[in-house]
Amino acid sequence: MQIKEKLTKIVGAENVSDDPEVLLSYSKDCSLSAPRMPNYVARPKNTDEVHGVVRLANENGIPVVPASSGIHFYGNTIPNLGGIVLDLRRMNKILEVDLYNKMVRVEPGVTWGQLQSEAAKHKMMGLCPLLPHPLKSVLTSHLEREPMLIPKFEYAGSLVTMEAVLPEGEVFRTGSACVPGFPDKSMAEGVNPGGPGYLSYNWLIQGAQGTMGVVTWAKVKMAPRPKIDKTLFIPFESLEDAIQLVYNVQRRMIGEECLIINSVNLAAILTKKWPQDYNNLRRILTPWTVILVLGGGWRRPEEKIEYEEDGLREAAAELHIPALPTSLPGLPGIERELPGMLRTAWPEKKTYWKFADKGACQDVFFYTTLNRTPDFVQVMNQVAAENGYCIDDIGIYIQPMEYGRSCHFECSFPYNPDDTDEVAMIRNLYAEAAETAMDMGGYFSRPYGVVVDMVYDKAASYTTALKKVKQLLDPNNIMSPGRLCF
Q1: Residue 224 CB burial class (10 angstroms; 0-12, 13-18, ≥19)
Q2: Cα 35 → chain centroid
Q3: 340, 374, 401 — which closes off a domain?
Q4: What is the pLDDT of residue 127?
Q5: Largest Cα–Cα separation, the chain
């Protein structure tokens, strides 16, 4: 029996394809990675079908590449060695809304728009990255460790427990979700990430880009949706001054969403009419803006807003900041719109904000400390200029993490994907910018593309240990081969 026939027996004929046009759509994404065609696409609907496909692939030595989102940006779902792309978008159920523990259990095909709509019915919200694409999977964001907009300690480690099909076909659950009978016949609530034993096995699969297993559901944290909000747009000519305010604010544990963004990105997000509004906003916005949303919860929300405002005024007074604006020039009423925007996906009917200017965008992102970000901005500008890229087009987004103890630094380079010379320039710029940032101490916890070899070449002992773990779990090397250091 041929592989296609065996796949058909597992997931059904309508959910298997080897049509060249279908395969071509899975061979590339929005990254600079070289296209690679899979041999088959399979679309399972549940864990049993995922288990069947993985077992079939393992028995026949066929690569398996899981994909959850309807769009991908980093090349991590391109089948480098062919094989089966396991498209998990049919698995799109919200399995449980756990209000008592402020968590939700989702399958991999659940999108951000889907989750936030359901969570809002319960006065809750998922912890959301910055304006994700409407086709982006919630589970993919958590597995890729994307930074969330609320930098509170209690929201760190937002992926709590999960179920995964390991490369040889075993179904494995992490943390307290591993208790027999969970969730139907067990008192365990799946809310403790430790276990089996004393380990947190999430870290084995999270960030592994499909090389250690296929996650079929996960329990992730939610936050109470504020009853009232107050949005502040605090402008700065200097990034150093913006950073000092964020340090002061986060030390006092003030606010919900908090981020630093430059005028390029802020204009791209808030523009309603292209290109005239975009160019106008870029001209009138200050170089840097701290966006801070104060949120009043379910009980006595006005009093919470009031005392957070008092704390914010104290933080600003220490830095001699004269005003704390709640609006932006040229955008009346945006202070009322923005909290809702930040708590869901980008609208489906609008061009994605990172693509709106030139059609495509290449990001360089890593972890550092807030005080070092001005140095990285300077170096990114220098590398861009040396490669012939206009530094006025660079977008910068800085996301404080865990009350400002560190941050996610993201530098975006919009480009025209139809211009071969510009694509080649961006390819060189991306590699040089990543290498320079790494040499300066930027921590690339999520390496993609050319960054992979840079990271693993610098971590020999870690790479050796990781390969041993991979060999134990995936002796036939079927899970996303050719990715990371495998």
Answers
A1: middle
A2: 22
A3: 340
A4: 96
A5: 75
Cα 223 to chain centroid distance, Å, stands at: 17
* φ, ψ dihedrals at 74, nearest 5°: -125, 5
Query: What is the number of other CB atoms lying within 10 angstroms of the CB of residue 61?
Result: 10
**CATH assignment at residue 246:** 3.40.462.10
In degrees and rounded to multiples of 5, residue 60 shows phi and psi of -110, 5
The helix, strand and coil proportions of the chain, stated in percent and rounded to the nearest 5, come to 35, 20, 45
CB-CB contact of 161 with 174 (8 Å): yes
State the Cα–Cα distance between residues 417 and 248, nearest whole angstrom: 41
Report percent pLDDT > 90 for the chain. 95
Number of separate domains in the chain: 4
Does the predicted TM-score (pTM) go above 0.90? yes
CATH number of domain containing 65: 3.30.43.10
CA-to-CA distance for 264 and 380, rounded, in angstroms? 15
- CB contact at 8 A, 74 and 448: yes
Range of 81's domain? 3-87
Q: CA neighbours within 13 Å on the CB side: how many for 361?
A: 23
308-363 pLDDT per residue, tens: 999 999 999 999 999 999 999 989 999 999 999 999 999 999 999 999 999 999 99
Output the CA torsion 88→90→92→95 (10° steps).
Answer: -90
Q: What is the pLDDT of residues 235-270, one digit of tens each?
A: 999 999 999 999 999 999 999 999 999 999 999 999
Is the Cβ–Cβ distance between 215 and 206 less than 8 Å? no
On whether both 121 and 165 belong to a single domain, the answer is: yes
> What is the rounded distance in angstroms from the CA atom of residue 186 to the CA atom of residue 12?
32
pLDDT at 199: 84
Q: Are residues 210 and 275 in the same domain?
A: no
Structure tokens at 67: 């994909």
CA distance 381 to 364: 12
- Supply the DSSP symbol for 371: G
Quick check: 29 and 77 in contact, CB under 8 A?
yes
Question: Which amino acid appears at position 27 of this protein?
Answer: S
Q: What are the tokens at 473? A: 């779990």
